[in-house]
Write a structure and sequence with these properties.
Elements: H1 2-11, E1 14-16, E2 20-22, H2 25-36, H3 38-55, H4 63-79, H5 86-116, H6 122-130, H7 140-167, H8 169-186
Antiparallel strand pairs: 1-2
């Protein structure tokens, strides 16, 4: 069910100038990681990304974006295992996801695909390392500087959505019922 929600969230992405977007997939992955753990979150993120791409491809599949989406929920799941207050966990998860996923993997994958003009995957990295790419219009760092502010907006929107969901007593009760149903069926 959450993988299907991730696919829908992918389709609800709001494109912005400069290869930027507000994607609600982050909220789905965060939620899955927080309430169901790292492995389900990784599967939900990756499956949602892959299925959305297969249904409606927007160009070549970008392996760095896929890895990033898979990591959002994993990072949240790991941070939420700590004994920090809930608000701190959400902020810490958001900061780590911003640095590793949005500024790191996403930006690198998009830079490879749109600026360097190679496949955004292992073969593209190999081509970047071994090929002659002296005509690259923007360095990765210039591209990152342009994308970082909108990536922060994207993450903030998703963190607020997750924060509101966490504050909702209805969501907490629903997740508790799901977990108690799982416990009842495994006995």
């Amino acid at each position: 069910m959450l993988a299907a929600l991730s696919v829908v969230a992918n389709f609800c992405t709001i494109p912005l100038p400069g290869n930027n977007a507000v994607s609600f997939t982050l909220a789905v992955c965060f939620f899955t990681g927080i309430y169901f753990g790292a492995v389900p979150a990784m599967l939900v993120g990756y499956a949602g990304d892959l299925i959305a791409h297969l249904i409606h491809p927007l160009g070549e599949y970008n392996w760095f974006l896929a890895a990033s989406v898979a990591l959002y929920g994993v990072i949240c799941a790991l941070v939420y295992k700590t004994k920090l207050p809930q608000a701190v966990k959400l902020i810490l998860s958001a900061i780590i996801c911003y640095l590793v996923c949005l500024c790191g993997l996403n930006t690198f994958g998009l830079w490879l695909q749109y600026i360097v003009g190679v496949q955004a995957g292992p073969l593209g990295v190999w081509d970047l390392i071994t090929g002659n790419h002296g005509d690259i219009g923007k360095s990765f760092w210039v591209y990152l500087a342009a994308r970082a502010p909108m990536s922060a907006v994207n993450l903030t929107v998703n963190a607020v959505i997750v924060g509101v969901l966490q504050a909702s007593k209805t969501i907490a009760k629903l997740v508790e019922r799901i977990h108690s149903g799982e416990a009842a069926t495994t006995k």
